[in-house]
Amino acid sequence: MNVNDAIGRSLAGNPVFASLSEPHKELIAGCASLKVFQAGDIIYREGQPADQFYLIRHGRVGLETYVPGRAPIIVDTLREGDPVGWSWLIPPYRTHFDARALELTRVIEFDAACLRRKMEEDQAFGFAVYQRMTPIIASRLAAARRQMIDLYGRPNERGVAWR
Amino acid sequence: MAVTATLPETMVPRPYLVDRVTADVSDTFTLVLKPQYGTEQFAFRPGQFNMLYLYGVGEVPISISGDPNDPQRLVHTVRALGTVTAAMQKLKRGSVVGVRGPFGSSWPIDQAEGADIVIIAGGVGLAPLRPAIYAILARRERYGRFVILYGARSPKDILFSRQLERWRSRLDTFVDVTVDRATGAWHGNVGVVTGLIGHGGFDADHTVAMICGPELMIRYGVLTLIDRGVRTNNIYVSMERNMKCAVGFCGHCQWGGNFVCRDGPVFSFDQIADIFQVREL
């Protein structure tokens, strides 16, 4: 199987982009290449220009933030099928967290500048990409807010005491 | 003429001895009880609870967390939250505890036969679901895909972690765990437990889901399952309210038209959907 076949198959089976039309899949695939990260590899660092984004074909990626004097804090983990990074869609195109491969991770890497240019030129394509990425951004925002609530903190002693 | 009032059996605590106390996670512990007199077996259905009475301190409702196929051992997992449960945490082998029960409704173990099963638990909410997990694993061949999803605050707060590992090592059970926060020493998932639902690989049309944990987690869990196509009458939740008498008499746990102690704690979501979002209840 050549690289283009592998990218095509991955896109066809990806929960986010599988529903793109074939011409749009070809457009997105034209900005893609395959890449492998070993466990522990940094994929990108917080604050860097968001020049790439990734779809995980296999493996897991941790999003981390760095606090001086402490071990890196993992804020989210992503896995097969998940996009890694959305900062490439939103000015000023700068990453918000470190992304690290937690195990051997195979991805499709997209050239963000290439994609943005195609999205400008073909706005139906641009809309289709935003339509698929925006729910991801929204669900991650909601999940991050839920994590902040401290759901499992101590309630008072009423009702059933096992929770 | 003298009048003798007889209390119904459900109102009289039976004395049990603490056989073992195990510290689980920071503020949570498990009590294994056996009858003080005789060799009574304690039959219950997964999801039911007992009223545990610490003489001279008070009585609290605690879900049964043991194996329904092992009625010799009455097991409760308790989170020390207030006066009674904090005192229970100090119990030693041989201490006496009063037991009333079992009370309440149960997880739909029999009705779910033939379906995929999704268990979603958060924090100590895994304890009331553990009997259901035991029951399903005891007759595993009668169910489709079996998915256990568990969320905890941090890696050190994961309840029954060895058991989760054992269940995960089975080839017929999918177990996924996530925590809300972790440092680099943790190699598992980070994120909310509802984020695991999409990776469960179950057939939404033929799935029975059972959820227990903080009410907010239940709410998000139910919404995510509905978004995935699971029918509301196939989603079961265990609710928590202020239970006192446990027999639907005192009214402390009234929730809309239900008494949680008698009509619950396990409800199918379509039973309670109309009152679930009522904030005043």
Provide tags for this entry.
heterodimer, A: alpha+beta, Jelly Rolls, 4-stranded antiparallel β-sheet, 8 strands, B: 281 residues, alpha/beta, Elongation Factor Tu (Ef-tu), domain 3, Rossmann fold, 7-stranded mixed β-sheet, 6-stranded antiparallel β-sheet, 6 helices, 19% helix, 30% strand, globular
Overall description:
The complex is a heterodimer of chains A (163) and B (281). By secondary structure, chain A is of the alpha+beta class. Chain A has a single domain (3-148), classed as Sandwich (Jelly Rolls), CATH 2.60.120. Chain A has helices at 3-12, 22-29, 112-121, 123-148; strands spanning 32-37, 42-44, 52-58, 60-65, 73-79, 83-84, 98-101, 105-111. In chain A, a hairpin with a 7-residue loop joins strand 4 and strand 5. In chain A, helix 3 crosses helix 4 (123-148). Chain B has two domains: 9-103, Translation factors (Elongation Factor Tu (Ef-tu), domain 3); 116-238, Nucleotide-binding domain of ferredoxin-NADP reductase (FNR) module (Rossmann fold), CATH 3.40.50.80. Chain B has a seven-stranded mixed sheet with strand order 11-9-8-7-12-13-16, sandwiched between helices. A six-stranded antiparallel sheet of chain B has the order 4-3-6-1-2-5. A two-stranded antiparallel sheet of chain B has the order 14-15. Chain B has 281 residues and is an alpha/beta fold. In chain B, 19% of the residues lie in helices and 30% in strands. Chain B has helices at residues 83-88, 126-138, 161-169, 215-227, 260-263, 269-276, and strands at 14-23, 28-35, 49-54, 58-63, 74-79, 96-103, 116-122, 146-152, 174-179, 182-183, 189-190, 207-212, 235-238, 254-255, 258-259, 266-268. In chain B, strand 14 (254-255) and strand 15 (258-259) form a beta hairpin. The chains are: A alpha+beta (163), B alpha/beta (281). At the A-B interface, strand 4, strand 5 and helix 4 of A face strand 4, strand 5, helix 1, strand 10 and strand 11 of B. Strand 5 of chain A pairs antiparallel with strand 10 (182-183) of chain B.
